[in-house]
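Table S2 (text version). Query chain:
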Amino acid sequence: MNWERELAARADLINEGLDRYLPPAALYPPSIHEAMRYSIFAGGKRLRGALTLAAAEALGGEQARILPAACALEMLHTYSLIHDDLPAMDDDDFRRGRPTCHRVFGEATAILAGDALLTLAFATLCHLKRDFPPGLVLQVIEEVAAAAGTRGLIAGQVVDLESEGKQVAPDLVEYIHLHKTAALFRVAVRAGALLAGAGEHALSALTDYAVAFGLAFQITDDILDLTGDEVLLGKPVKRDLARQKATYPALFGLERARELAAFQVRKALQSLEIFGAEAEFLREAARCLLHRRS
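Corresponding structure-token output:
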């Protein structure tokens, strides 16, 4: 499998969906809709949405029916990046090789653009009611809300901010990674699996895969902040070090962090052993983490 090509194909599908679900840039007031679109279409790989589609495909689900969930996860992810970049948070000026939302549109509009994408994500999930039973749609919405809130993403972000400049234990760093990053990967995969009718055994296996994948993703992200190429990353490196962030490389050193990333990738692959070739995209996604350059 040419994984990069397969990812690009799924990204194209998701981008088409996002273009339909987002308000037109010219809709009054245009400033907020321009800011939303500027951030959504900033060149992301659509990995979370792609994993939603891939989890469904592993169980025989149809991409077109799952697409609203994939688009909603990308909206949630983009909202989190807009807010993460704000001066009150990580104070970043560049994201994916171009100025961050608040640098282009101002801090107030950036906050509102993030809020608008978060709200639109849940409106987009409601489109699932056209193809799925109401109870199943509500379950997906409930899980996405939990992953985005103080039991998931926001919890991880809060502890991440509170841990800056402090000596922290390994279990706290894992907590940050599990909630700030892995929570969205987990719900992205679970949403696709649930909508494809996953049984308990398959859902458990895919959940284990997603958690391990999310941890490996964040560990490799932390490594890239120390060793990556600014041009490829589209943002300055060594920002975590300057802010004294709680990361695996800071706690264990680079080599041990690489070993821990590889361990999580192995766990992710082991979780997929009950599946056949239909889960190959998920397998390749995990393998590619160890060779990330951006």
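Notes on Table S2: The longest helix spans residues 200-227. The CA atoms of residues 85 and 92 lie 5 Å apart.
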